[in-house]
Amino acid sequence: MQEPVVADTKTSNRELLDFVFAWPAWFFAVGGALNGLLVAAFVVVILMLMFGLQFLGYSHPVYWGFLIVNFVFWIGVSHAGIMVSAILRLTQAEWRRPVTRAAEVLTIFSLLTAVQFPLIHSGRPWRTMYWTFPYDWNRGAWPNPRSPLVWDPSAIFTYLTSTILFVYVALLPDLALARDRAPNPVSRAIYGVLAMGFRGTTRQWRIQTVAGLLLSAIILPIFVSVHSIVSWDFAVTSVPGWHNTIFAPYFVIGAVHSGVSAVVTVMIVMRYAFGLKRFITRDHIDSLARLLIVVATVWLFFFLLDFFFGLYGTEPAEVDTWQRRLVEPPWVVIAITFIICAYIIPVPMWMFRAIRRNFFWMFVTTILVNVGMWLERYMVVVPALERKSGLTFTYGDYAPSLSEFILVAASFALVILGFLTFSKLLPIMPAADIKEGQILADRIRVGRANVPAAMRE
Amino acid sequence: MSSSANEAASRASAVSSMGQTIPTDAEVGHPEGVRWGMVVDLDRCTGCQACVVACQAENNIALNEEQRVLERRAKTWIRIERYWEGEFPNAKARFIPVLCQHCGNAPCETVCPVWATYHNNEGLNVQVYNRCIGTRFCANGCPYSVRYFNFWNPEWPEPMNNQLNPDVTVRTKGIIEKCTFCVQRINRVQVTAKTEGREIRSGEVQPACAQSCPTSALVFCDLNDPESAPAQLAEAEAGRSYTLLEHFGTDPGVIYLKKVDPHAEIHEDEHVHAGAHA
After folding, report:
1. Chain B hits for A317, Cβ within 8 Å
2. Whose C-alpha in A30, A114, A226, A262 is 20 to 30 A from the C-alpha of A72?
3. For residue A344, what are the contacts with CB-CB under 8 A and spacing of at least 6?
C-alpha cells in the first residue's frame, strides 16, 4: 500500500524535529514522576545488595519469581523492534516508515531494562562478570557452557549490539538533519560528531541503505534465537511444566505478540504527546492490528499445543502442574485473566475495521494484551516451581513482596524514561525514511497519465 | 638464578594445574574409584530428627527460628519428611530423611553458569561457596529441593557463636548451600589415613547425621566398596531398596530401604507414590 503524501519536505523536517528542540512542561513532570519510581527501586536494590534478598517474596522451593517473570516480559517486548523494522523493511512494506524507529528504540530500552533483572535477582550481583563474560578471571573456572544462563548473555548482548547498530545506521541521515537545524553551537557540534560526516552524497546514501538492509537480514536469526534461549532457561530443566520442547517457538511468538502490541501503544501515545498526527495515521494502526490478529492466533495455537502436550503425555507431575495453573484457586484467576486479556477480548475486537482504526480502542486493547502477556509469563514460571518436586512435603507457595512490585513498576518507568530521553535528544521519527516514502509515493502528470515520480530499483 | 628457576617451575606447575579443578566426564564416577553414598533404612527411622540437629551443629547452619520456618526459609541440609498414611484414627506417620542425593547424573550441575556445583571424582556433588553467585538455577533444577539459599548473613547470638565448627565455612548471604556429606570429616579421615600410611577403613568416615542416628537408619559408605557393611546390606535387602524419584534418572548416591509393614494397606495414595518406586 502506497501512503499518500502528507507534507512537503519543509513541514516534515519542522514537525518531526519539533520535540527534539522544544522543552514542553509535561516532559519535566513525567520525567520527574518516573525518576521518583526509579529512586524507590534504587533504594530497594541497595537494600538487597547490603542485606541480601530477604526483601523479596522468594522462599523454599520457589526461588524464581517476579523478577524473572519481568525479565522474560521485557525480552519479549524487545522483539517488536526487529519484527516490525527488519521484517517490514525486507518485505518493503511501505507503511512501516513512521513506525520503525520507535519500535527499534523500544527494543533497545526494553532490552537494557530486561538485562538488569537477572542481575539484581542473583544473590551476588557484583560477580556478574564471572558468568556473563567468557573468561576465567584467574579462577581456573570458565563459565559453564552447559548452562543456559551462559547462553543468555551471549544471545542478549549480540541482539543488543546489533539493534544499536541497526538504529544508528538508520539514524545517520536524521542526525545530519538535526545537525543542520540545531539552534545552538553546542548541540550542533554534538549532532555533527554523531552524524559522522553524513552529507547526503549518493555514495553515502548507497552505503547507508545497503548497511540497513544487510543488518535487517543478519538480525533476523538473532531475533529468533534470543527468546528461544530465554525459553531454554526453563525448558532444559527437569521441572514439570517447564520441560517442554514447544517452549522456544511458543516464547518467540508470544514475544512478538506482546512486542507488536507495545509498539501500537507507543505509537498512539507518541501521536498525541509529540504532535505527530500528520505522520501516525489510522492506516498504520490498522496495518499493525491486522498483523496482530495473525500473531495472536498463532500464539494461542502454541499455547494450546503446550497445554495439550502436557495432557497427552499423561505424566502425572505435568498434569498436576497444569491443574495448578488452570484450576487451583490463586492461579485460576490469573489464568482466566490472562487468556481473556491476551486473546479473547482483543482479537475479536480487531476483527472490526472501525476498532482497528480507532486510536482509543487500539490503545486499550494493546495495553490489555501486555497485561495478559505479563500474567502468562507469571503463570508459566511460578506454579511449576511451587509444585516442582515429587515430594509433596516441599510444596510451597509464592507471594510477591512490596519490593518486587516496586521493582516491576520501576522497570516500566525505566523503559518509558529511556524512550522519552531518546526522543528528546534524537529524532524519534525517521525523517529521512518518511521523506523517502513520500518521494516514492509522489505522482506527476505526464500528458494524460498520472505516474509515480520516482522509480524503485 | 635459582629463584627465577623456582618461579618458572612454580608457574609451570600452576599453569599445568589450571583447568584441572573441574574433572572431565571420564574422571567423574569411574567405577574403580570411591563413590561416597548412604543407605537409609526407613524401617529403622523413627523420625526423631537427631540427624537434623547434628547436621545443624556440625555444619554451622544458621538458626531456624520460628519466623524462618513460617516463611519457608529455614535451612535443613537433611530434613525428615513426614507423610500421613491412612485416615484418622488409623493414620500412620511415615518418615523419609531427605538430604542431597549426590546424584551421579545431577540436574543441578549442568545448569550452574559458574561451576559452583560440580561432581568430584569421589562421587560427591560439591558446592563451591566462593564461586556461587546465587542465580538459584540449581535449586530449580534439583527435583529433591535440597538446596537452600542464604537470604541474609547468618548470625549467632553470644555465646552460640563459640560452638561454630572451625572446619566448616560460614556461608555468606546470596549463595546456595546444601549437604556436603560432611566433606570436612572425609578430608580429615583421608589425611589421617595418609599420615599413618594406610587405606581408609570401611566405616571410618561418619557424617554427623549418620553418627547421631540412634537406630542406625543412616549408614554412610563407599558404594563402590563391595566389602562395606552398608553396601552388603543394600545388596542383601535388594528387594526393598530403591532410590528417590527414580524416574528423573539422576542416579542418586543415597539408597533407601523400604519400610517393612506387614499391616500396611496397599493403596495408590499420592503421598506414598512419591517415594514408592521400589
Report:
1. none
2. A30
3. none
